[in-house]
Amino acid sequence: MARNKPAPLKRRLIKGGRRTSRAPVWVMVKSRGRIRSSRKQRNWRRQKLKP
Questions:
Q1: 1-51, pLDDT tens digit by residue?
Q2: What residues does each domain of the chain span?
Q3: What DSSP line would sit under the chain, residue for residue?
Q4: CATH T-level fold of 1-51
Q5: Structure pTM?
Q6: N or C end of the chain: smaller count of CB under 10 Å?
């Protein structure tokens, strides 16, 4: 990937980085541990972002 990235691509990458975080603790507590990961969670090896 290029060192200098256009702004729209940067925004998409930042958004993707935020999505990879896990579900908040209060969600797990509320669901009594049934929900452990967020639906939009992604792994960098398995699923790629659109450039």
A1: 789 999 999 999 898 888 888 888 998 899 998 888 778 888 888 888 877
A2: 1-51
A3: --SS--HHHHHHHHHHHHHTSPPPHHHHHHTTTS--S-TT---TTT-PPP-
A4: Atp Synthase Epsilon Chain; Chain: I; (1.10.1620)
A5: 0.59
A6: N
Q: How far is CA 25 from the centre of its chain?
A: 16
Residues 8, 22, 49, CA angle at the centre, nearest 5°?
30
Q: Whose CA is closest to 41, among 12, 20, 13, 25?
A: 20
User: Residue 37 has which token pair?
Assistant: 């990961």
Of 49, 24, 26, 47, the C-alpha closest to 37 is 24
Token duo for residue 1: 């990937």
